[in-house]
Give the backbone structure.
Amino acid sequence: MRLARLLPLALLVTLLAACGGRHATRPSGTTRAGSAHHGWFHRDRDNTSLPQDRRYGTQADSTPAGPPPAFIYTMPEPVPKAEPRSPYGNRSPYTVNGQTYSVLPSARGYDERGIASYYGNKFHGYKTSNFEAYDMYQFSAASKVLPLPSYARVTNLANGKSVIVRVNDRGPFHANRVIDLSYAAAVRIGIWPKGSGLVEVQGLDPAAPGGEPPPLPPVSKGANLPGIYLQVGAFSDATNAERVAAQLRRANFAPVQVEQVQINGRTMRRVRLGPLNDVDTADDVTTRIENMGLPRPQVAVD
């Protein structure tokens, strides 16, 4: 971490804020899985001291045109192994876009449901937050809280498909996203080409007693997708909870619930609204809630 503290502020922000929601046309050329020397990799001209809006060769992200390469469907997944913590990208806590995040000590026990996005051409070959070159044809991912590097199993809750990814980047800093997948990982579990999807992310720690957590059970045909909810706050004072709930009900975004829960031994009132129809609706409602002067909601997938 000593090295990380010596980095210029612009570099730290650039490395941390590398990811967001993306859509996807790749420059012409043939690529192969695992190639570390694609002709259009940018390692030699990746100036990490530049601000985010000047660092990359293009402003808009994209993914390869046409159907995904066949090798993505048969490529072996990473095998989790103990790796030393990177000196870069693990500063904790850190702040991006006014939000503060803390990096977990390990991936052990991490299990979170939420919205996944993916990233591609814009970042391909440029350095990730731990100074590795991002290769969109590998199974990798960006997380706001998992240590770099670490491993996670990501399961698409719509179809039960999963992939193991190596986490080597920070992000996504788009509101309401839990993980940003490489293009290959998004293809493998069916998040591509839509752009986002509901997933469960399970941290994998090779040193954990008993090994990896078991995979999620298969999704039965015709099963309903989990619902998307927005949690606007958790309050110890019932009056405050009802005040926020009343504001949301007047806005009429979606049904509003006030639920009593125990958090660290304290009784709290959790204010949530939903279920919402899709990710785009969740994004729109999140923005509108923030514009009301209320805290940024957190996504819950139940």
Q: What stands out?
A: Residues 74 and 188 are 9 Å apart (CA to CA). Residues 228-301 form a domain with the Alpha-Beta Plaits fold (CATH 3.30.70.1070). Confidence is low (pLDDT under 50) at residues 1-15, 17-40. The two ends are 37 Å apart (CA to CA).
